[in-house]
Amino acid sequence: MSRTALPTLRRTLVAVSLVATLVLAFVGLLLQPEFPDDNAEYVRLLAESPTAALGLQLFAFAQLFWAIGFVGLAHATVHRARVTGTIGAVSSGLGAFGHAVFAGASLVGREMAMYATETGDAAAAVAAADASQGGAFLPYLAFGLLGTVLGVVFTGIAMLRSRIAPVWVPIALLVWVVVEFGLPNFLSGVWITYASMMLGLIAFTGAAIAILRGGRGAWTTALESDESGDPTVARVDAARA
Question: What whole-number distance in Å separates Cα of residue 184 and Cα of residue 165?
Answer without folding.
Answer: 29
